[in-house]
Amino acid sequence: MNKKWPALLLFLLVISLGYPFGNAASAAAAGSELTYVTSFGADASLSGEKVSKQIYFSIPDYWKVQKTTVKLDYRVSQILENQRSSVTLSVNGTSFYSFRPAAGEGEQQLNVQVPSNLLKEDSNVLEVTGYLREETQNDVCTTEPSPDQWLNIYGTSSVAVTHTNKEMTAEIREFNKRFTAIDNASGGRSAVAVPEGADPAELEAASYALSGYAGGSDLGSGALPLIPYTSDQLQGKFLVLLVSTYEHLPADIKAKIGSSQLSNSAVIQLIHPDHQPTLVVTSANKELLVKAGRMAANLSLMSQLDTDKIVVDADTAVDTPPVDINRIVPLTDSGDQLTGSGHQEQTYYISMPANRSIAGAGKVSVSFRYAENLDFERSLMTVLVNGKPIGSKKLSEELAGGDKAVFPIPSNIDVAGNFSLTVAFDLELENAYCSGSGGQMPWAFITKDSALQLSSKDRTEMLFNNYPYPFLRDGSFNHVAVVLPEKADAATYSTIGNLFSLLGKYAEGNNGGIEFFNDNADKNQLKNSNLIVIGTYRDNKLIQLYNKNLYFKFNDEGTAIASNEKIRITETYGKRIGVIQLVPSPWNDANGMMVLTGASSAYYELASRLAANEANKYKLYGDGVLTDKDGNVQAFRFKKEAGGSDESLVKDILQRSDVVGFMAAVVTVACLVIVSLILLIRKHSRRQKNRQRSRQQTRSKRRGGK
């Protein structure tokens, strides 16, 4: 037994002294078997005679699928009749498995494999359809769903895809595809890295790149991490985007990059494609490094690069197109068909910058046709925005071959940022109350000329309800200045990654400005910017200087968050909470200052997680939020309510350039009319006076003649 110990120790020594990225290498290597699990996420309680639940799962094109397993955790009503009830699973519209659920047996589980020929690259949809019949129910269908016919599908249900990865090619576009794919991005295996102790230019370039990749990634409930480029931080990362000035690159990477003309250009180059693919963005010129970071954020450009290296110079075009805020949005490229009696829906998802809300000038135009065998007294179509109806139209036999409905979007609808638009049909057959109507299956078709005329307006109140305003405006970075603590650690980088992951999800391109500053930056450098201030009382001079302006202030010693008018905080609790708050800039009330702070970097990093992804953003409202490691989050509003409706109306008018222009023209015309009237009156008055003088002179002459 003792003879085995030297060999074992030698093996462990080889492992420990081997390539520092060995964990990532073995897991990411082509041929290694991996399993990616897509969870159903939330419990679903379905009731009625016919019920269904859909879940989408992805299969990137570089996966070689070995098997796909559906795990269904479910429970059915105790009064269902086993021999007349069934559940069917289908993938991409094709059924592959049916079974009869056992009523009255509590929670049950089904494990079944999906036939490989039903799967496709990219997005797939699994549908669970249940036909639920009661023991005493006759064969006549009912028109109303019964609450005692139910199927519960638990969130622990999942789709697991076991696969190997194809060998990665040495192309930037291939790196792009894998870096943003669901298995790497949402699993925390993709990361953006900067040198330890990164300078402001490196962080600026990295923030552009991180935002762009975050916007194009499926991050789920996570964030794209920003890490220092050290061996311990790189462990477990499959793909790395390294942003660094040339002088700060490790020696082995410098050797691969070379040094020709990097003072007049920047390089984006893929290295180590066989074990830990790393896309290096570097330059000896800091301005060109930032430009290369902007190019990395332009995923449309990056996805076209079939080489392992590209050079960026002063003449390279890297900017994304400007965002068109008010525009015509086609609903469908080729048309959408809905089939089946009863209620049918087609939902479209519309993107809009988060700081904007729908204005009343918008409208929806839907062109459609439908079957002629409907009961036209009971059939209609309805359009909904975020689930709220904005208009309905009754279907008619005369217009079945080509119908159209136009609905204005109500001015009082409260929709901001991305939203859904649903076109719903109620397709009822004459004298038929069951869904199974043989060859009389009704249908409706939404044609490709259906469109949304989108008009929007700014939401500019300085509250987290409107976040990411003021740091994004109309999809572009809005003069963002990040003020760092005296010394940045791993938690500081994680905080930056959290913030720019969510900002990247909302950014519509790589436009606008981001700058990084040390805490000794002066007023002139910061006064025209929207500030993000990161640090503690002791390591960020700006927090110390403007502590009196904060809603959550530090105590006199600067060791803990103190009580305020909204909440009583003990000194011990004040040392173990993180705070994120949004206050006006100390130099310009029109700009904002978001402060992430706590007694240590671990706590402001904790606070930054509230602004890291959509899953947590709902907790961020008001203008001051605190959180602790137990998961408790408390949000408060300190800013007083805005002025009355008249003030809001004036703001809305001033934000509409077309209305302001029209009003200016009206005022100008009115002024010209008034001036003209004054001149006419004066002219008329002079004539009157002249006439009076003439009459007086005539009278005087007559009197003199007499």
TrEMBL record:
It comes from the Bacteria. InterPro entries: Cell_synthase_bac. Residues 1-24 form the signal peptide. The keyword Translocase does not apply. Keywords: Cell membrane, Membrane, Signal, Transferase, Transmembrane, Transmembrane helix. The chain crosses the membrane at residues 659-681. Its main location: membrane. It is a single-pass membrane protein. This is Glycosyl transferase. It comes from Paenibacillus physcomitrellae. The lineage of its organism: Bacteria, Bacillati, Bacillota, Bacilli, Bacillales.
